[in-house]
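Hi U.,

Before I forget, here's the chain from the pilot set. I'm dumping it here mostly so it's searchable later in email.
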Amino acid sequence: MKKLLLAGQAILGAGLIILSLQSCKNETKQEDPKEVAEDANEAKFDSIDSKEDDSEFLVDQAEINLAEIEIGKLAQTKSTNAEVKKFGKMLVDEHTKSASEVSALAKAKNFTLPTSLTEEGQEEYNKLNEKSGVDFDKKFADMMIDGHEKAIKKLEKAAKDANDQEVRTWASNNIAGLTAHLEHAKMLKQNLDKK
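Structure:
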């Protein structure tokens, strides 16, 4: 009888341990907003590759806008350089406008977009936030050049290859604006490098 009671307690104990491990396992970390949006679009458009490609492009654009807005805000509050602050404000204004256009276009196409900064965007933001003074300004200018070069390539590709005419047109119409941002960032970098 005593052995049976001990065996029962051992089984009960093991069961409790398994349950507690399961509950720990279920505490998943927050998924990256970009991955959540891409997964949702994949599920919706799994059989329609053309829509999936266009949705990926708009997800990328939303990610870019979210990052540029946050980095622009950071530049306005953290920089001591008037030109960097001005560029930061322009980024916030322009990318907020772009974000609302992308959102409207995505809504019309039934695409899901990320609504908060992605893990990669947050990492970039954190790296910049660690800097101060002229180091901050130079890192900001470098990030703007690199980011806008990549964004322009994505726009050019979508303007040529997007399956949806409205997505192609939107991409095509936004190349000039981002090219102006890139040129502005390059001038900013030249002026900062003289310091």
